[in-house]
Design a protein that fits this description.
By secondary structure, the chain is α/β, with parallel strands linked by helices. The chain is 31% helix and 17% strand. Helix 3 links the parallel strand 3 and strand 4. 33% of the residues are buried. The model has no long low-confidence stretch (mean pLDDT 93).
Length: 161
């Protein structure tokens, strides 16, 4: 008997973990998950976007409009940062990050500082935003590579946030 041939690729597997993690987010507008993988293809961190530990999801705003303190933006921790902070290893040198949405400039700084060397993203919804332009600028200069997820379409569609 021959082995199965319809198994998913490593990229599909790890992106699936990232997208599954996004399902934990309570954000009513945007759910993002992230998965950090080391060179041995071991998951060393996962995260999703949400409020910091100890801050109630019921007490802070989820809105996107209004004055700064009436929106989620000053309070939410992004999936990439949570994956870094939740990692089981403090040394993420050379790791890959699978993420549902291209990282913002704030997450880009944390990614670069942590030693992560490759980003695989599912969507780049805001390529013309200053935040994403800044991320790409920093990634290009620091040697962090990035590429769009190119796995089987049905995997991405089934898991898309």
């Amino acid at each position: 008997m021959d082995k199965r041939t319809d198994y998913i690729s490593w990229d599909e597997y790890f992106m699936g973990v990232a997208v599954l993690s996004s399902k934990r987010s309570k954000d009513p507008h945007t759910q993002v998950g992230a998965c950090i993988v080391n060179s041995d293809k071991r998951i060393v961190g996962v995260g999703y976007n949400g409020f910091p530990r100890g801050c109630s999801d019921d007490d802070l705003p989820w809105g996107r409009e209004g004055s700064a303190l009436q929106t989620k933006y000053p309070f939410v921790c992004h999936a990439e940062l949570n994956a870094i902070l939740n990692s089981i290893s403090r040394d993420l040198t050379g790791c890959r990050l699978y993420v549902a949405l291209f990282p913002c400039n704030e997450c880009a700084k944390a990614i670069i500082q942590s030693g992560i060397k490759e980003i695989i993203y599912l969507q780049d919804k805001y390529p013309d935003s200053d935040s994403v332009k800044a991320s790409k600028f920093m990634f290009d200069r620091s040697g962090v590579t990035y590429r769009k997820f190119e796995g089987r379409t049905e995997i991405a569609l089934q898991l898309e946030p």
